[in-house]
Amino acid sequence: MIDFFKRPSSRNTLVILMGLITIFLAFVVDASAHGVTAGDKGYIQESSGTMLIPFIYLGAKHMVTGYDHLLFLFGVIFFLYRLKDISIYVTLFAVGHSVTLLSGVLMNISVSAYLIDAIIGFSIVYKALDNMGAYQRWFGFQPSTKIVTLVFGLFHGFGLATKILDYKISPDGLIPNLVAFNVGVELGQIIALATILILMGFWRRSGDFMRHAYSANVALMASGFIFVGYQLTGFFVS
Fold first, then answer.
1. pLDDT-derived band of residue 127, with 50, 70 and 90 as boundaries?
2. How far apart are CA 34 and CA 37, in angstroms?
3. Where are the domains of the chain?
4. pTM for this structure?
5. Cα 212 to Cα 233: distance, rounded to the nearest angstrom
6. Short-list 75, 81, 73, CA closest to 218
7. How far is Cα 119 from Cα 51, in angstroms, rounded to an integer?
8. How far apart are the first and last CA of the chain?
């Protein structure tokens, strides 16, 4: 963790502002992190019977292009260096994601996707503040990061389950297709995580990691707030 009250340099502030503009434009193009492209949506709606490979592909594609997942995972592993620690947190996130994805669809549990996505945005804010040591300063204790990772994993999976229910997936081959989709999500998570770790490895070896850690987490927190605001706006105007 880093000192929450450490002030970033003016250069870093400029980088943050540029990053926020980029993030905002990305959100305007696609407001919902759990959105599915028109082609994939049509495929899901028209599919019938067991189709393992296509659904594995769709699951992996969702994870690799799901910026809400990537931002949260980036925050989770930000200060994790040992592969053992990374594996524990990623496994907790995957378990939570899998449980609510499968149970949400099979039990036909659906709520507003805007509210779920707003909670997911809040998870990004929460993790950024955690990385900045805010909770120890504000409340005098450190919440269990393992429990929090599992809980937010549940919300991430529930968000996707809500979208799948919206697309009226065929009951024919539903269970194997859902399992295949979830396998694809986890494969996509491995691919995305490997990419993040490689890039962070270069960053950590550059010597600028701790100097820019504050700025990175401020940008992460701000992106989460923007995401929350965008989703709540969608909820109230829809």
1. very high
2. 10
3. 10-237
4. 0.78
5. 32
6. 75
7. 32
8. 39
